[in-house]
Specification:
The complex is a heterodimer of chains A (158) and B (662). Chain A is an all-alpha fold and 158 residues long. Chain A has a domain at 50-158: Cytochrome Bc1 Complex, Chain D, domain 2. In chain A, 53% of the residues lie in helices and 0% in strands. Chain A has helices spanning 2-25, 33-36, 68-81, 100-103, 106-114, 116-122, 124-132, 145-156. The longest helix of chain A has 24 residues, at 2-25. Chain B has 662 residues and is mostly beta strands. Chain B folds into two domains: 56-518, YVTN repeat-like/Quinoprotein amine dehydrogenase (Methylamine Dehydrogenase, Chain H, 7 Propeller), CATH 2.130.10.10; 525-654, Immunoglobulin-like. In chain B, 10% of the residues lie in helices and 44% in strands. The longest helix of chain B has 23 residues, at 2-24. Residues 1-6 and 11-35 of chain B have low confidence and may be disordered. Classes of the chains: A mainly alpha (158), B mainly beta (662). The A-B interface holds A 1-2, 4-5, 79-81, 83-85, 92-93, 134-137, 139-142 and B 1, 3-4, 522, 525-526, 535-538, 554, 556-559, 561, 581-584, 587, 630-632, 656.
Chain lengths: 158, 662
């Protein structure tokens, strides 16, 4: 009986190890060409522009043009709540938000702001980012959905 | 798998059985409790599975630790020690600049006291989970702890008091917390012969009004009583709402060898104060303004800072000038505990040296007062005839009765110090229905809501003075303890022993569901009004004003801004004002700097705290975060360069890249 348990554990650990190594071996999902790739049925790597992440946001409507008033509000929130770890144009504690919508879906961005604890556990891209940024966690600054939406609009201006 | 776990549990059962055998062969003193707890499913009744929450909070007084312990029931798990009349280096309480004012008194900064009696705030005679009050016995004070933060929010010094023992024992709607003096003293204080006690010493009973919205306290009035020693108190409820009852000893008015001299009279007194009448006398201008000197210290969750105000006068009512304000109820003998039952009719008094428990009747008391059934007076305070006010007697229930709590079914539970037991009896019929031993020497006891008009019942907790052989020994100083008994059935059943920190005098318990919804998870940065707040990293700076250096610093997982500082000099007073920029639950940051002579800071999300650092020698000194905050917590560190007093080292600071000189 004990042996069976041990075998099961070994199997689980092996699976976990495989999971880790396959994560590392694949290239970072960044850049516009990822969107053009057909989705593989076996890969657990989602299309970063389709992947909405994990959290309260399931769909975001972006206007044809930037809503400047909303973006201004977003900048104020960003300056107050986010700049301890993010600089607009360069990598700091966390990544720079410039061009983020070329790399991620708007829903993913808002979920990352609103639900970072779950994202870094469950979303494959967020998981990878956590490792890339030395395990430094994305702090949940408890923004409201409205504030997160404003920050997203601000990101469109960067 | 199933077989395997069966084998395991069989093994465990065998081990437990062996343990039981070993325990059963231990000292005789343990025997009753051991069989009691293991003879039933006691373990199941106190087991709170991992990840599950306790049903009740238990707040224990820390006694000479000056703190309040916060435990869960039925598990007996300790969650927190709230520093009140104490220093707590762990939290920086009493060390950081923000909390130091809380411990200010007319005698200076007093970082310790002896805290005895917690009292949960009530609305309509029911505990409401807003605040908990506790007395400071030695340098007379009253504190209010906010149960949304579990932090000390206010401390009020009590003037004209010689030891705040009969306190806080609040009223049904938290209109007042009371503060009766244990020692009578000259009022106002003056240099007189101690032997002039009977002539010069008075006992002040203070009524401290509580603002129903903010909880803020102020000494509304004092009743100047003869030189008795006031011991404990209980406020009326239902029909007796409007009255507070204080026990007293030393009706002999002695000032030495009280052990003998204050035990002469057959009866001492319960002082019944009609505080609604007192309010009428106040309105009528009957109060005298007495000179006084006392401090009122209030902490603000907006500025995250406490402020002290010195007060210089207090309103005093003299009983002989205010008929109907006070009556004395003769009570056998050296009464200690006084506890009004949930109906408000019976005032249950435990005479430490009496064989019986005496219950006065509130209805009879009113009638006797109306009919002037007096048995003389002391300094113009009428003494009611004992027979006229007696409501009932519990005959010879045990030795050394101290305190009584109640359940919702008309039962009373009285602690007996000398015979180490809890005795359950019926209010009204006065018959003893059960008794259970305690281990050992119980003082107070607690039923959830057991001193209110609406007891929650379910458990009685014994708060014991002595543990002897109950726990693993820890040198000469042993732990104190609490014991949990179920009172659901006809018979009390001992379920659990658990140790407490400091001597638990009194404790109060409340349904967790009344406290949980009020919990603050973090402070909003946008509402932080601290004088030295640093709302974003951009605002971080270092400012020199003469030899005072203010460091406006921030924390977030996992770095300080700034984390490198130069231009500090030997002899400077450096104030680190650290703002925690986190806006999430359970992400405090710590701040420690080498050579600090005080403590660390432990800054809650959205809060600002200040540590004073006075570098005595030149060099480069590390600072770091003490509270494990993330995987990169260990990297949350920095340096402060200290140059000689005469040096020209420029003041500068940075994070990441060194900035040009500011």
């Amino acid at each position: 009986m004990k042996k069976q348990v041990l075998n099961l554990l070994a199997l689980l650990m092996l699976l976990a190890a495989i999971g880790c190594s396959s994560d590392k071996s694949e290239p970072a999902a960044a850049g516009g060409d990822a969107a053009a790739k057909p989705k593989s049925m076996v890969s657990d790597e989602p299309d970063p522009l389709e992947n909405k992440g994990v959290g309260p946001i399931t769909s975001v409507e972006l206007g044809a043009t930037v809503d400047q008033a909303m973006a201004d509000k977003g900048k104020a929130v960003y300056d107050k709540m986010c700049t301890a770890c993010h600089k607009a144009t360069e990598k700091f504690i966390g990544p720079a938000p410039t061009g983020i919508l070329d790399r991620r879906s708007p829903e993913w961005v808002m979920n990352m702001i609103l639900n970072p604890e779950k994202m870094v556990k469950e979303d494959p891209i967020a998981k990878k980012l956590l490792m890339e940024f030395n395990g430094s966690p994305m702090a949940n600054q408890n923004l409201t959905e409205e504030e997160a939406r404003q920050v997203l609009e601000y990101f469109r201006t960067l | 798998m199933k077989n395997h776990s069966n084998q395991l549990s069989n093994l465990m059962l065998a081990a437990m059985a062996a343990l039981v055998l070993v325990l059963a062969s231990c000292g005789q003193g343990n025997k009753g409790a051991t069989t009691g707890a293991l003879g039933s499913n006691a373990a199941q009744k106190t087991y709170v599975a991992p990840g599950s929450l306790d049903e009740f909070y238990l707040f224990t007084s820390g006694g000479f630790s000056g703190q309040i312990g916060v435990y869960g029931l039925p598990s007996g798990r300790l969650f927190k020690q709230i520093p009140v009349f104490s220093l707590d280096a762990e939290k920086g309480y009493g060390f950081n600049e923000e909390t130091k004012p809380l411990l200010q008194t007319s005698h200076g900064f007093i970082p310790w006291d002896d805290s005895h009696h917690p009292a949960l705030s009530q609305t309509n005679g029911e505990t409401d989970g807003r605040w908990i009050f506790i007395n400071g016995n030695n340098t007379p004070r009253l504190a209010r702890v906010d149960l949304s933060t579990f932090e000390t929010a206010e401390i009020l010094e009590i003037p004209n008091s010689g030891g705040n023992h009969s306190s806080p024992y609040l009223t049904m709607n938290t209109e007042y917390v009371v503060a009766g003096t244990r020692f009578s003293v000259p009022i106002p204080q003056k240099d007189v012969a101690i032997s002039s006690y009977a002539e010069n010493f008075k006992g002040a009973l203070s009524f401290v009004k509580v603002d129903p919205k903010t909880g803020r306290m102020n000494v509304e009035f004092q009743v100047l009583m003869p030189g008795l020693n006031f011991d404990l108190a209980s406020s009326g409820k239902g029909p007796s709402h409007g009255w507070t009852f204080f026990t007293s000893y030393n009706s002999e008015l002695k000032n030495s060898l009280l052990e003998v001299n204050a035990s002469q009279n057959d009866k001492d007194f319960v002082a019944a104060i009609n505080w609604k009448k007192a309010e009428e006398y106040l309105k009528a201008g009957k109060a005298k303004d007495f000179p006084a000197n006392y401090y009122h210290n209030v902490y603000s969750d907006e500025t995250h800072t406490a402020t002290s105000t010195q007060l210089k006068s207090v309103k005093v009512l003299i009983p002989s000038e205010c008929p109907g304000l006070v009556y004395l109820l003769p009570t056998p003998k050296s009464p200690h505990g006084v506890d009004v039952d949930p109906t408000g009719e019976y005032i249950v008094c435990s005479g430490k040296l009496s064989a019986d428990i005496t219950a006065h009747s509130f209805t009879k008391m009113l009638k006797a007062a109306d009919n002037k059934e007096f048995d003389g007076d002391i300094s113009g305070v009428p003494i009611l005839k004992f027979e006229s006010v007696l409501g009932g007697t519990v005959k010879e229930p045990g030795l050394g009765p101290l305190h009584t709590e109640f359940d919702a079914n008309g039962n009373a539970y009285t602690s007996f110090f000398i015979s180490s037991e809890i005795v359950k009896w019926k209010v009204g019929t006065w018959e003893v229905v059960d008794r259970q031993p305690t281990y050992y020497s119980i003082g107070h006891l607690c039923v959830p809501g057991g001193n209110s008009a609406k007891p929650e019942g379910k458990y009685v907790i014994a708060l014991n003075k002595i543990t002897k052989d109950r726990y693993l020994p820890t040198g000469p100083e042993l732990t104190q303890s609490a014991q949990l008994y179920s009172i659901d059935g006809d018979k009390m059943e001992l379920l659990l022993d658990f140790p407490t920190v400091g001597e638990p005098h009194y404790a109060q318990a409340i349904s967790a569901s009344r406290v949980i919804p009020k919990q603050k998870q973090f402070f909003k940065l946008s509402e932080n009004k601290h004088k030295y707040v640093t709302p974003t990293e951009k605002d971080a700076k270092v400012v020199r004003e003469g030899n005072v250096v203010h460091v406006y610093m921030t924390t977030i997982r996992s770095h300080f801004m700034p984390d490198n500082i130069e231009g500090v000099k030997v002899g400077d007073k450096v104030y680190f004002h650290v703002t925690n920029l986190e806006q999430d639950f359970d992400v405090p940051h710590g701040f420690a700097v080498m050579g600090a002579t005080n403590a660390e800071l432990l800054i809650m999300p959205g809060q600002t705290e200040t540590l004073l650092w006075e570098p005595k020698k030149e060099g480069v000194f590390p600072m770091y975060c003490t509270d494990f905050c993330s995987a990169l917590h260990q990297e949350m560190q920095g340096y402060i360069r200290v140059s000689p007093a005469s040096s020209a080292t420029a003041l500068k600071w940075w994070l990441g890249e060194e900035k040009p000189v500011q």
